[in-house]
Fold this protein.
Amino acid sequence: MAANNPVFGNECGLPLNAVAWLEMHHRCKAAEREQMVRDLQLKAGSLVVDAGCGPGLWVPLLAQAIGPQGRIIGVDISVEALVTARRRSAGTWYAPQVEYKLAPLEQLPLAHGTVDAIFSANVSQYLPEPVKTFKTLGQYLAPGGRLIVKDIDFGTLRFHTIDPGLQARVFQARERWERIRVEHGYPFEDSWVGSKLAGYLREAGYEEIEEKTYLIQRRYPLPSDYRTYLQGIAEWFVCEGAPGLSSEDLTAWLQCFFDEEYNVFDQETFLYEETEYVVSGVWPGRYTSHEAEAQVAVLNESERRLLSLEEVRS
């Protein structure tokens, strides 16, 4: 998901939730992400909502999974991301089966009980009330429909060539800061959300919960994109003043990634790893024809209120 007002940029001025950053991040983990979507075993011909689609990076993978008879609706709150997604889709083989909508996750421009699967990648970390949001999304799913949530968990991140004590202090300081940063005027964020997703889906009322983990490892030598990605992540850990971290640890941490003479990326023993989570659950709801008709009426009214992407662009 992209944000209209990113709050943090790395030292190159690249906001970590901006379109350019999302595109680079996607390239860095393309192989793993392709495997994630294959493992979902989405049904051919399905209607899939990409909730928090950002610039549409997952759309071709989803389109390939559901085939030419399937349909994808990408939803996001960022106009910039949606415009980028439409441009990316233009002229592609999957263009006829994709459309993009400007809307929040809690107000999808669809009738309740009509969607086969809702896919949401790297969005849950920004949800202050994930259980409430997941429960709301469930109402849009057809009986037996699935919510699929993919996200990070920086509790699994390791740089094997950096002092473990230093890493622990940096990560613990960031985790503590994320618990209180909203009180200081920053948007909500939980970068340790991955391992919590299964519990959130259960609490929201989903059944048949499935959790899959994907170990991502990179060794020396690193591709330039991945080097830039990890530098951005490293600096993000100590952004916003790095409260709770000593100045000595702050300096030592940044030297590991930006020092010209001693840089962990240039060591032949360099090894980085993290685990990403993909969790799915089946929505048990049942809908009558009367409820479906009522939802169509609500949808028609909400469609009149929602700005279309074309209106926003004009």
In short: The radius of gyration is 20 Å. The chain has eleven helices and eight strands. The domain at 19-155+187-217+275-313 is CATH 3.40.50.150 (Rossmann fold).
